[in-house]
Please model this.
Amino acid sequence: MQDERDVSNIVTTFLLNTCRLPPRLSEHDIQAAGWCAWTVNMRPVDDEEVEFIPLVTGSVAEFYIDPMLPHVGDIDVMYHRNSMLAIPRGHPPPTQLPAEFHNYVLVCEIIDSHLPGYVYLELRYLLTEFTYNGKYAYIEYDEKMCLTNNVYGRGETHEIHGPALLTQKSKESSYLFADKKHISEMSIDVVRCEHCLSWPLQAADWPTRHRNYGWPDSATLDRVVSNGCDVVPVAHHQCREHKWMSKNQWRLSFSRAEIVLINSWTPIQQIVYHMLRYFIKTERLTDCVNNSGTVTMSNYHTKTLMLWACELKPTGWWTESLNLVGICVELLNTLSVWLTDTRCPHYFINNCNLVDNSFNLGNMASKLMSIEEEYLSTWFLSNYIGQCAQLCPFYISRLFNDVSTGTKLQKALSEIVRWRLSTSAFDLWCVFMYAVIYIPSLLSRRSLTVRSCICWMNKLEKIEKCFSVYFSLVAVLHVACKITRNGLNDELMDIIEAVLGRNFSQCCSVLSLHKTELNTSELVEFLQKFAVEHLTTFRQLEARDFGSVATIVTTDFEAMYAYKRGDYQRCLQLSTQNVRTLLYDINMPIVPIFPSFMQLLDDDIASLTALTVIVNPECRDHSDGASITQLTLSLYLMTQCQLKLHHSVTSLTQTLSYIKVAQRELSLKLTLNHLTLKLIEHKAHRFICH
Model:
């Protein structure tokens, strides 16, 4: 077997070769965008005009590397009201605010508690905006009162983790692509906060303190300070039994600063952070509270350790004689010293200790101190690289079962790295397909408003521009479906204007035909045609970017629209061509069959979808209950058109042979896919037999 240094080099080389760097797409980013859109639709019970402004924080926002093993445990979304603002104590009330704020804004001063980092919010001013110049005037409250931290309400049924509201527990979802890759939905933690536009006085020394090695640089410091901070509703663990403090204490949050700082790290620093988190979590060293209710360590201690290391260590410490395992050992030993001394200095706030005598540190300090390079390199070889091997095809993973010699180990690792590199485009396409399914899935389950539309498009634009375009097209079909069912109203018109943008004038030209009495059928037809035309362009872009890893036909939406309009000859022509292209391929796009798209088909598909949900209600939220492959869709349209056009038995017999091939080749894990193929098989058989 290899010696200590060799194994450390192997682990280092493996992580450097398998952690992908930008540009990348992430399913976590797409999920976070959806939850931000959900957040902006929420309303405080006391004011319908107030808006919530979301921010994605935590691992999703901090990491830009994409390692083989999971590095995102959940999705964190903070949100603040646009009618509330926090300011440092003694600061004058602002006269100008960002456009997102309401015309009436309550201002609270941040008041220190007896514990560093924990504060109270004291209501101090009411700001009122002047309409003619956009500036704010203020009045001062005579009677000052502290804001309660009970922001979620007593009737809230969701689980609360510290300041966070857990809105969805993690579960293994049915998002499966090409029968190879699962994508699961993450747990979502939403945190209500109050935003402070200024850098807090409690961390006043942080921007100017002496730094020997130039990190963070001046530009990063300026960005951090300009973002201000937030205050989140949670009391210090020592105060949670106190009658008054437990209800009124808040904690300063530097999540915005941490996002900027961690994104400024080098790839090596991000990989080390990932390694530390993975090791500490796997060894169960971080649990919020143990069984006895005693506080223990959290991921935030690991983050704090890394922030200090990036500031206090020279650049060469990270790169000279590059050894990721050795770096981790030294940092874990530093953490051990902190725990032995019962100290973990807050990165931003002086004299703030993140551990105290109430922490259940047990033997953790001695365990961390005993970690040496030989142990940790072997640990990562078995517990990290070994897990990566299990993600590979069997012919690769079995190589890792016998790594008794250096040659065998190197061969196994080389095959894992080669497979990782070769699947990069496929994994990217799976995330692309995930967005295609996830976006209409969420729209089918949640209300769509102008506010959520704008949020969706802005968030998706930052991830990938084509996703923002795709969302707008799905939203157009969603609105068309709503109009067909319930008629047109002002809210739907506002949504149309928001999602169409510059194309809205074209829509208005349709409406201007009937200024006094809107012709909703013409409007619906326009919206459907507009969406299908641009969805076809969307498919063309998909085929251009991912044609090397999947067989993608670009006319599936066009065929659906032809079928909807009764142009069965055109639909048959397109579908037949698509079937011949797709028939013997496994990797192909999935077509969403949610209400937005179902309007382009017929009652048979609607009935099958309803039956799927009745048999398995969990299918309502996932791809196996509301999607089919391009091949199945093309076969369905082809069969239906042949029946409607009274084609010969010979034609239907040929189609039946195509259906049998599809049943043999395609995954039966897509429930609706399986039922659709059975339906058209039955129809073709019945026609042939009669």
User: Anything to note?
Assistant: The first strand starts at residue 52 and ends at 57.
